[in-house]
Amino acid sequence: MLETMPLGSAIALFGLCTAVIGVVGTRLAGVVDRIADRTGLGEAVAGAVLLGLATSLSGSVLSVSASLSGRADLAMSNAVGGIAVQTLFLAVADLTYRRANLEHAAASLGNIMQGALLVAQMSWLLLAFAMPEWTIGHVHVVTPLLLVSYLYGVRLIRKVQTAPMWDPARTRETREDVPEESNERESLRRLLMAFAGLAVTIGAAGWVLEKSATVIAVDTGLGQAIVGTLFTAVATSLPELVTTLAAVRRGALTLAVAGIIGGNAFDTLFAAFSDVAYLDGSIYHAVSDPVVFWTALGMLMTAFLLMGLIRREEQGPGRIGFESLSLFGFYALGVVVVTVAG
Question: Could you tell me if 17 and 208 are in contact, meaning their C-beta atoms sit under 8 angstroms apart?
Answer without folding.
Answer: yes
